[in-house]
Amino acid sequence: MAHKPLLATVLGQRQERPPIWIMRQAGRYLPEYREIRANVRNFLELCYTPDLATEVTLQPLRRFDLDAAILFSDILVIPDALGQSVRFAQGEGPVLEPVDPQIITQLRREGALEHLAPVLETVRRLRAALAPEKTLIGFCGSPWTVATYMIGGRGSTDQAAARLFALRHPEAFAALIDILVATSIDYLVAQFEAGADVVQLFESWALNLDDSAFAERVIEPNRRIVEGVRARVPNAPIIGFPRGAAGNLAKYAALTGVNALGLDYATPLDFAAKHLPDTLPVQGNLDPLRLVAGGKQLDERVDQIVSAFANRPHIFNLGHGIVPETPIEHVAALVDRVKNG
Ligand code: CP3
Question: What is the pLDDT of residue 264?
Answer without folding.
Answer: 98
